[in-house]
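Quick one:
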Amino acid sequence: MKPYLVSLAAGVFVGLVYSVINVKSPAPPTIALIGLLGMLAGENMLPFARHLLTHVLS
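Output:
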């Protein structure tokens, strides 16, 4: 979880710097980022459900 938080913090920091120096971010549109989030959620859904069922049923 820590690498994700570090990555998020770095992204927020860079976004703030871009805002201060009035530079347009080269990041993809928000819709692409939401699609990537959906892909990550789908990729982790089955392993998470298996983990949850293993601990709930045992």
